[in-house]
Amino acid sequence: MTLFNGFFTKERTRSLLVALVICALAVVFQFYASAYSNRVPSNSVPDLILGILPIVNLNAIIVEGAFAVMVGTVILLLSKPRYLIFAIKAGAIFIATRAVFIAVTHLGIYPGQINPDTGFFDKMYTGLGLEAGFFFSGHTGLPFLAALIFWDEKFWRYIYLALAAIFGISVLFAHVHYTIDVLAAPYIAYSIFKMSQYFFKEDYKLIDTV
Q: What is the number of other CB atoms lying within 10 angstroms of the CB of residue 22?
């Protein structure tokens, strides 16, 4: 049985299932890495930029906005299945890499950090451990990774680059990330993209499928 008007052959369907399993494992790994990081006593460190910026509550962008982008990206990928398998695998590598960094890097909360509220999406956000860990910024890195994946589609490339900038600025003003977390995220996302191109060559080739 094929899906999406015959795009998903048996081989591609098998690759999609592998991608979903890898992604699920990465999410579980990230959850436990965040839980471990939260248990480790740590101190905050000075930050030149955060010391200058005023503290602004931007939870609507950081929490609800992040979920909206996730849902929108899923819908976009389902409408463009040739991107789907590679995007899931690259995203899984991103999540797993960030989980490792969270587990080994223990910085304390910067003074004045804006915490998530008590609404439904805020509880989901904290329940998944998305607020834990600092290095590196997933809010900045994931949209940048999406921009790289959709690079040949100018509209989506600029949309995701704009989102990376908006999220990056927002987490700094809310003091929920250190400056280095935001500045390093695009570089790490680019490295993950190139690694994914190397390890998932056949999945990346599907992007050129018409």
A: 17
- Rounded to an integer, the average pLDDT of 6-31 is 92
Question: Does 183 map to a domain?
Answer: yes
- Give the model's pLDDT for residue 4: 73
What domain range is 192 assigned to?
10-208
Indicate whether this model's pTM tops 0.85: yes
Structural domains in the chain (count)? 1
> Which pLDDT score, from 0 to 100, does residue 2 have?
45
Tell me the DSSP string of the chain. ---TTTT--HHHHHHHHHHHHHHHHHHHHHHHHHHHHHHS-------HHHHHSPP---HIIIIIIHHHHHHHHHHHHHHSHHHHHHHHHHHHHHHHHHHHHHHH---PPPTTPPPP-SSHHHHHHHHTTTTS--SS-HHHHHHHHHHHHTTTSHHHHHHHHHHHHHHHHHHHHTTSS-HHHHHHHHHHHHHHHHHHHHHTHHHHHGGG--
Tell me whether residue 171 is in a domain: yes
